[in-house]
């Protein structure tokens, strides 16, 4: 497999040279393939790979039960501790096809999808990101100019367009972080603190969901749950009502101490029931419809409260 590794290195250098702002790195996925299909014994190489290091750092910073290096080592030895590598051998050909597709279409992906987020980010934003393609872990994560995409995610394996569209989504997060540091949920002490986090996440996830929205409509790629709901007025209205109830609860209990029960209930609805993504995107769509995408570019530089207020002003007049 030395030839494949060398080719991957060449492709990475080549893409870095041609596209200084967005680069692709396939080394994580290829090392895992080598480990499970050619018995190369690359455990430590994988553990220290920048893609997997980024996953572990994300888990450490944002998970109440973080995945560790030792968990990754155990998973690589067949114990399934945080990473599910059980299908790597069976899906080898699928993974190789995905990697081949990505390598052959880097320029088109960057031109058609990676730049979609620029429509909603301030004019002075300079896009710079490395996208690590890995096997296992989260479907997609983004922070600190780095993105990890899990090519084992069923939605990506079955439809490469979904992988491209999710890249657009994650790249918005990279840009948003330049203007709004990611909130630390573990530092929240009161319900008021939680509302600030909910507001920020709704704006961030909502606009990331909006980023590929129009491209999805154009391509008729609307099988993803969030977009199905956005295009179904009845279900959408139920989500909006549910979200409004969450915000009302947060406002009415702002001085309360934050408990695990409150946190679980609110995040369960906002994240688990996809309110962050669906209602946040709907808010962005309403603002864009009224004022154009330039308004959203301006709002990204402002606080989430102003984003919410802009939306509320529009709905009050309807």
Number of continuous helical runs: 17
- Structural class by sheet pairing and helices: mainly alpha
Low-confidence stretches: 1-20
Q: Given the C-alpha coordinates, what overall shape results?
A: globular
**Fraction in beta strands:** 5-15%
Give me the oligomer status.
Answer: single chain
Instruction: Give the end-to-end Cα distance, rounded to a whole number of Å.
Output: 62 Å
The whole-angstrom Rg is 20 Å
The major pleated sheet works out as:
4 strands, mixed
What percent of the residues sit in helical stretches (DSSP H or I)? Answer: 55-70%
Which sequence of strands runs across the widest sheet? 1-2-4-3
Q: Let me know the average pLDDT.
A: 91
Count the E strands.
Answer: 4
The SSE string, one letter per element, is HEHHHHHHEEEHHHHHHHHHH
Structure description:
Residues 1-20 have low confidence and may be disordered. The chain has helices at residues 2-18, 27-37, 43-47, 50-62, 69-76, 92-104, 106-114, 154-158, 160-177, 191-210, 213-219, 225-230, 233-252, 260-272, 275-291, 293-300, 304-316; strands at 22-25, 129-134, 140-143, 146-150. By secondary structure, the protein is mainly α. Helix 9 packs across helix 10, helix 10 (191-210) runs parallel beside helix 14 (260-272) and helix 15 packs across helix 16 (293-300). It has a four-stranded mixed beta sheet with strand order 1-2-4-3, with helices on both faces. The protein is built from 17 helices and four strands. The termini are far apart. The longest helix is centred in the middle third of the chain and has 20 residues, at 191-210. It is globular and about 65 Å long.
């Amino acid at each position: 497999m030395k030839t494949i590794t060398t080719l991957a290195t060449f492709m990475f250098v080549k893409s870095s040279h041609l596209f200084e702002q967005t680069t692709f790195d396939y080394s994580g996925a290829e090392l895992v393939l080598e480990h499970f299909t050619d018995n190369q014994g690359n455990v430590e190489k994988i553990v220290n790979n920048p893609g997997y290091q980024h996953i572990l750092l994300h888990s450490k910073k944002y998970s109440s039960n973080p995945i560790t290096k030792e968990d990754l080592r155990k998973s690589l030895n067949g114990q399934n501790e945080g990473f599910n590598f059980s299908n790597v051998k069976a899906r080898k050909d699928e993974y190789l096809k995905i990697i081949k597709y990505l390598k052959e279409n880097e320029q088109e992906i960057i031109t058609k999808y990676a730049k979609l987020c620029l429509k909603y980010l301030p004019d002075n934003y300079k896009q710079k990101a490395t996208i690590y393609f890995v096997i296992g872990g989260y479907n997609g994560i983004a922070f600190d100019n780095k993105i990890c995409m899990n090519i084992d995610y069923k939605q990506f394996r079955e439809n490469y367009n979904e992988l491209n569209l999710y890249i657009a989504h994650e790249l918005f997060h990279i840009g948003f972080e330049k203007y709004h540091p990611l909130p630390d949920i573990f530092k929240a002490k009161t319900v008021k603190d939680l509302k600030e986090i909910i507001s920020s996440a709704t704006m961030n996830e909502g606009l990331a969901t909006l980023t590929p929205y129009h491209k999805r409509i154009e391509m008729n790629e609307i099988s993803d749950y969030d977009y199905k709901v956005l295009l179904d007025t009845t279900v959408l209205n139920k989500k909006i009502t549910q979200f409004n109830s969450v915000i009302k609860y947060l406002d009415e209990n702002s001085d309360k101490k934050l408990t695990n029960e409150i946190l679980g209930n609110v995040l369960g609805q906002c994240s688990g029931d996809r309110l962050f993504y669906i209602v946040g995107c709907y808010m962005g769509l309403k603002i864009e419809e009224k004022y154009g995408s330039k308004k959203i570019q301006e709002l990204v530089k402002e606080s989430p409260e102003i984003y919410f207020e802009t939306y509320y002003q529009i709905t009050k007049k309807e």
